[in-house]
Amino acid sequence: MNIKSNIAEIRKSIDTVCARCGRNPDAVRLVAVSKTKPAAMINEAAAGGQTLFGESYVQDFLDKADDVTADIEWHFIGGLQSNKVKYLCGKVAMIHSVDRLSLAREINKQWQKIDQPIDILIQVNIGKEESKSGTTADEMTSLVRQVSELPMLRVRGLMTLPPWFEEPEQVRPYFRQLRELGETVEELNLPNVEMRELSMGMSHDYEVAIEEGATMIRIGTAIFGARD
Ligand SMILES: *Cc1c(COP(=O)(O)O)cnc(C)c1O
What we know:
Elements: H1 3-21, E1 29-33, H2 39-47, E2 52-55, H3 58-65, E3 73-76, H4 85-88, E4 94-98, H5 101-113, E5 118-124, H6 137-147, E6 153-160, H7 172-186, E7 193-199, H8 206-211, E8 216-219, H9 221-224
Parallel strand pairs: 1-2, 1-8, 2-3, 3-4, 4-5, 5-6, 6-7
């Protein structure tokens, strides 16, 4: 497993896809998903120039964050229980997985204590899958409206974990739908809400996600190898 060359491969592929669909590659940020992987691997990726990392499990993140010596930006991307929000406060620059008002309120409360704003994304369960978290597309607008009233939260876009298909092309309609939802919200002109980010696309489908407008792709396996 050569982490640095994996990252270089993905960067090259981002450039290729962007050239093909007429997008600026600087507008696509690579989130290296390091969940369950040790600090040493994160440090190695950082030495290869990677600056943005995504984590999904609070305890796993806390256990290793202090051993990461590089100056990096952490995003939290996983399902989040309200009682664990306090442990992330001041440590992550963005939370991708806000899917309910109670969670948004707790984030607001904790970041109020440090008197700093926090960027968040609204997670949408675009495929309406039982097994996945996320607000439904129908409820999304009302959630965004309520979240926009929380002073510490800056809504920066939408995130999704679409249904799994062997063939990435089949995921395209879901990515497209997320983009269209973002455009709908943008038109509402809500305070504290700017739909500039679409966090979508993982190891096996990120190329399609970029074609559909992803601004952040979340890649774990293709960088760090399979997880146990
Ligand atoms: C694990 C995870 C990823 C990365 O998935 P890979 O298939 O390993 O690239 C992306 N997003 C979320 C929310 C995840 O939990």
